[in-house]
């Protein structure tokens, strides 16, 4: 059995196909998290979590299963221990009142690189988030 679900994201449109299937659409630049896991009679055999940013017209992107046409990958982990670790980081961000899809994309790159290197991940603080929002406002 294989299961795909979205951990977070703010879709701009949603179409429900049946009880278990829906299609969500994201505007360019929006961030979302896709979780995929597979199991058999003996338990979980694979887990992945991908945090991605929806690509705009003409922007480069990576193709991902269930994501059409694709997105820029900010973070990707495989194996249940790493997925669980990222879930804990997402929960910590939500606990301080920040929606995970509003987090600076650079932070997700940081988390990906630190986990890949077996290093400690820096937390995402409200002060860092304020700085990100100010920087984004200056760029627009």
UniProtKB/TrEMBL annotation:
A Pfam family per the record: DUF2840
Domain of life per record: Bacteria
InterPro entries (UniProt xref): DUF2840
Protein name: Glycosidase
Organism the protein comes from: Novosphingobium marinum
